[in-house]
Amino acid sequence: MLRFVSALLLLSASAFAPAYSVSIEQTVDSRDNLYYTDWGHWFTTAADNALGNPDSNPASSVAQNGTPFNFADFTTLSINASGSVIDHFGTATGPDGDTCTPNCLFNDGYFRKLPAYSLIGIWSSSATEIVPFGDWKDLTSGLGLLFIGSHLDLTIPSFPSAYLFLAENDGGFADNFGKYTVQLVASVPEPGSLALLVVGFAMLIVTRRRVK
Fold first, then answer.
1. Residue pair 62/163 in contact by the 8 Å Cβ criterion
2. 179, 29 in Cβ contact below 8 A?
């Protein structure tokens, strides 16, 4: 019984042990364009009005103190975004995108299968250009296009380098102004916490076997 209680205490301690984390604040301009360069996506024609759009900025990777931040040493990422941008002839939208009012430009409120004007992102193995890990069209695995919106919790991909590019989901940028303020918190469990978890589970298993 004493060992069982001790194991539970170890598990509780590991569960509440502080995780190592880094907080980064990022600004995403309403003209930041995830599709400015060609990284194999479909939207590379002039008619799409995204590739190399002169009214837009190439999306840049999340940076800390001006240096692109490699998330690869972390496990989880929590993203919170606020603010609003003005686009589509004076329509104000937040990070969650267009609510599709009767005069919405994209009919169903979606653009490239993600909410129009929303905050979006993609993981890249490069800090200076977008080099996706997998199929960029994959909206479910966390390796392709990401709908960030006003809040998203992510598992960081297990690659030697993992840079996150953020932008607004739009096709025409000439009428855009404003920005989103994005707070990112990358975390990883403390080594001590992981050790406590392992020891705690091991003690529980041994105790249960002896009880049987």
1. yes
2. yes
Q: Please name the residues in contact with 148: beta carbons below 8 A apart, sequence gap of 6 or more.
A: 79, 81, 95, 118, 119, 120, 121, 166, 182
Residues 6 or more apart whose Cβ sits within 8 Å of residue 194: 14
**The token pair that represents 189 in the structure block:** 């469990």
**Could you state, in order of their start, the residue ranges of all structural domains in the chain?**
1-17+190-212, 20-188
DSSP for 54-111, please give it: TTSEE--B-EETTEE--GGG-SEEEEEEEEEEEETTTEEEBTTB----TT-TTTTTEE
Per-residue pLDDT of the chain (212 residues; tens, 9 = 90+): 544 434 433 444 444 445 689 999 999 999 999 999 998 887 777 777 788 889 999 999 999 999 999 999 999 999 999 999 988 667 788 999 876 655 566 667 788 888 888 999 999 999 999 999 888 888 888 888 999 999 999 999 999 999 999 999 987 888 899 999 999 999 987 664 444 444 444 443 444 455 44
Residue 147, classed as helix, strand or coil, is strand
Distance, in Å, from the CA atom of 162 to the CA atom of 191, rounded to the nearest integer, reads 21
CATH homologous superfamily, domain 20-188: Galactose-binding lectin (2.60.120.430)
pTM > 0.85: yes or no: no
